[in-house]
Amino acid sequence: MIQLLMAAGLGLAFSIFGTPALIKVLARRGYGQYIRDDGPTSHQTKRGTPTMGGVAILLSVVAAYLVTHLISIVAWPANGGVTLSGILALALMLGMGLVGFLDDYKKISKKQNLGLTAVGKIVLQGAIGSAFAVLVLFFPDAAGHTPASTAISWTRDTGVDLAFAGPVVAAVLFVIWVNLIATGTTNAVNLTDGLDGLATGASILVFSGYMLIALWQAGHLCQNVSQAACYEVRDPMDLSIVAAALVGALIGFLWWNTSPAKIFMGDTGSLGLGGALAAFAVLSRTELLLVLIAGLFVVITLSVILQVGYFKLSHGKRIFKMAPLQHHFELKGWQEVTIVVRFWVVAGLFVAAALGMFYGDWLLHNGGAFPGTEALH
């Protein structure tokens, strides 16, 4: 628990003090946001606001994680250092963040709201996602556990295992599966990042949920307890430290990103956070639960899919005034802060529902008894 508080505190400190320094650098270089002309007219006032703030988030997370482990090694040598799962989670986050950085830089250098081509972005994301998918299936620990498995997971691995097709085909299918998750999460966070603080606040809630899930898993590993609903997860305690660092860094960034935003996270931040989200889903063996815990991101993504699909099928008609969904409410006259706070509430409800589902599954598999109440039965 001390390590979690340390990681969150360091992430907060690095971010809240590092972000204004980044704002000055970006403003001095003229690295400002370009606003789409077909968006809400109120957004034109945001033109020129420094972007690429995701750099502050991602670097703060990495710094908080490493410093936490350096201190832990000195203070509590028995707790060990960094783990492969933690490093791979950070690697996917940074890899996707790099794609976002290239996209942001291209927009800035061209002085327009067009970055990498769709094909170029997909190729880069696919390469990074594939490398991650391959690596998580190797390097077993002393107990024989690899960071991930080829089984499709809900609150833990299910009986649906891609290994039924043989090792080679299973590996290929797993790479495709992981890329679908990573592409979905990166695009979902990117679409949500349209109002001041919206994606940042929602991400705080989602990663807080994953921190609690990983912490619970760490206390109920199959090698440590004899329970029907134990968890075959690699390095969950270290994953909770990564999540804590993310929460702290995002809170620090929100201080500057809330309305009126002094800086935007840009694709650097949204793609990086999406990569971290995919990593947690795969490494914590909660791939299908991701749809619920990241429910706000899913709903916003679905609003775009529905809008585009209906527009094409109906020859120009629209379901929403504008997609993504947050802009629909803007055009209906809602104030930006009102939309952001209400969407945070929705995001929190989705996270609470996912945690309830996760814990409820544990209870059902253990006879429905709450911890410590066995003597009452």
UniProtKB/TrEMBL annotation:
One of its GO terms (biological process) is cell division. Its EC number is 2.7.8.13. It catalyses: UDP-N-acetyl-alpha-D-muramoyl-L-alanyl-gamma-D-glutamyl-meso-2,6-diaminopimeloyl-D-alanyl-D-alanine + di-trans,octa-cis-undecaprenyl phosphate = di-trans,octa-cis-undecaprenyl diphospho-N-acetyl-alpha-D-muramoyl-L-alanyl-D-glutamyl-meso-2,6-diaminopimeloyl-D-alanyl-D-alanine + UMP. It is found in: Cell membrane; Membrane. Mg(2+) binds at N190, D267. GO terms for molecular function: metal ion binding; phospho-N-acetylmuramoyl-pentapeptide-transferase activity; UDP-N-acetylmuramoyl-L-alanyl-D-glutamyl-meso-2,6-diaminopimelyl-D-alanyl-D-alanine:undecaprenyl-phosphate transferase activity. Its main location: membrane. The chain crosses the membrane at residues 6-27, 55-76, 82-102, 114-139, 159-182, 194-219, 239-256, 263-283, 289-311, 339-359. InterPro entries: Glycosyl_transferase_4 (IPR000715), PNAcMuramoyl-5peptid_Trfase (IPR003524), PNAcMuramoyl-5peptid_Trfase_CS (IPR018480). It holds the Pfam family Glycos_transf_4. PROSITE patterns: MRAY_1 (PS01347), MRAY_2 (PS01348). It is a multi-pass membrane protein. It comes from the Bacteria. Keywords: Cell cycle, Cell division, Cell membrane, Cell shape, Cell wall biogenesis/degradation, Magnesium, Membrane, Metal-binding, Peptidoglycan synthesis, Transferase, Transmembrane, Transmembrane helix. The keyword Disulfide bond does not apply. Its cofactor is Mg(2+). PANTHER family: PHOSPHO-N-ACETYLMURAMOYL-PENTAPEPTIDE-TRANSFERASE (PTHR22926), PHOSPHO-N-ACETYLMURAMOYL-PENTAPEPTIDE-TRANSFERASE HOMOLOG (PTHR22926:SF5). Belongs to the glycosyltransferase 4 family. MraY subfamily. Catalyzes the initial step of the lipid cycle reactions in the biosynthesis of the cell wall peptidoglycan: transfers peptidoglycan precursor phospho-MurNAc-pentapeptide from UDP-MurNAc-pentapeptide onto the lipid carrier undecaprenyl phosphate, yielding undecaprenyl-pyrophosphoryl-MurNAc-pentapeptide, known as lipid I. This is Phospho-N-acetylmuramoyl-pentapeptide-transferase. It comes from Kocuria tytonis.
